[in-house]
Model the fold of this input.
Amino acid sequence: QVQLVESGGGLVQSGGSLRLSCTTSEFTLGAYAIGWFRQAPGTEREGVSCISSTDNTTYYADSVKGRFTIARDNDKNTVYLQMNNLKPEDTAVYYCAAQEGLAMCRQYDYYYWGQGTQVTVSS
Done:
């Protein structure tokens, strides 16, 4: 089973920063649309930020615009989510996902998933 691996989660104070990483040894991420999703207890999984496979067009949820940045490093076969000015409401398990070809920033558009990394923001 193809596995994406997330890392970089942790506990941070409000206003702090974290950088999440997503990588795999199974395929070249540059050929896939990559999404970062998050899920807090009792809520549905939501799309936070996605990057296309074609021209690296990016999408951000309104709640993270101006604070989060998604970026590829093809040399490292890694996609990052830089999260700045974190808020307690950003607390969730963050998942990366990959889909060959075109995909919107919706969880049902993505086939490959990681196990998730916990992000906790204290007030």
